[in-house]
TrEMBL record:
Repeat keyword on record: yes
UniProt superkingdom: Eukaryota
Pfam families per the UniProt record, alphabetical: F-box (PF00646), Kelch_FKB95 (PF25210)
Protein name: Uncharacterized protein
Span of domain F-box: 30-67
Amino acid sequence: MSSISSTVMEPVESGSEDSSQNFVVQSPLICGLPDDIALFCIARVPRKYHALLKCVSKRWRELLCSEGWHSYRRKHNLNETWIYAFCRDKFEQLSCYVLDPNLSKRCWKRVQGIPPCSLKRKGMGFEVLGKKVYLLGGCGWVEDATDEVYCYDATMNTWSEAAPLSTARCYFACEVLDEKIYAIGGLGSNSSDPHSWDTYDPHTNSWRSHSDPNVVPDIEDSIVFDGKIYIRCGSAVSSHAVVYEPSNGTWQHADADMVSGWRGPAVVVDGTLYVLDQSSGTRLMMWQKDRREWVAVGRLSPLLTRPPCQLVAIEENIFVIGKGLSTVVLDVGNAGHVGGVMVSSSVPKITSDDDVISCKLVAA
């Protein structure tokens, strides 16, 4: 409890010579209950009500915004995963939306407060570490690549400036591995190394720069799979991939068989790699490592999907998120078919035609 306890200072009312000193009086979370019991109860309130809990008192607000609260919920498997989508509208302006998949009436809601200087940038990185969402780098029509990083705290609902990248970048790969953010390749300033990558350590709040000749600037997609970072380069028709081996910190060329079917957004479910092939309609493919081949899981209804789409997965549910935040949910653990089309559920559309650039998960 020490990491999440807050205290109030009250003066000693005494005639002694120490009357000018203060002593600490613990302000209970719930009157009449020890704090550990109170925390046990409060931490089990669903995440959708946390904004209301912050209004109870200053002590409760400090608790729900603390790292200790986040750690407690995660330790006891109480954290709930929400989906954050990074989008661009028809006016080339960026926006961010959030979806609580646990609600019976699911709907996308807009996240306010994106830093104004980032609203028109292209080629930005979008990544999640813990309970924080990061917007990294990017460039504009008259603006060179930048090293700026902005952070959104999902529990506090606030944006702030974070430690800048070691290298200014745009159109780069961005992934999380071993609780560190990797910003890889892409385009930068004339003086930057196109074969470099940066790693961010939240414990030191700092970036480190690295270089490897196998890292290329022409990046199409990336995924973390089997504890390694894979980056697909070139076009969707003719492409190759490189893989990062964290044990020795080097990049190597990836297996050609695996790369041959990686022709769209990818997601990993229970250690299995899935790809959404959007070359002719939308078809979910699965990589079978033991047989070294791709197999078709099934086609998605053209009435529900609006390519280009992005993928995220929560447990065995894959969320296919397309233009205008059209969202289809597939249970790959119990995938049914009707007339050759995979059975799915969907989320009501919002009144927009925004393109979805990237989707990430935040558990809090």
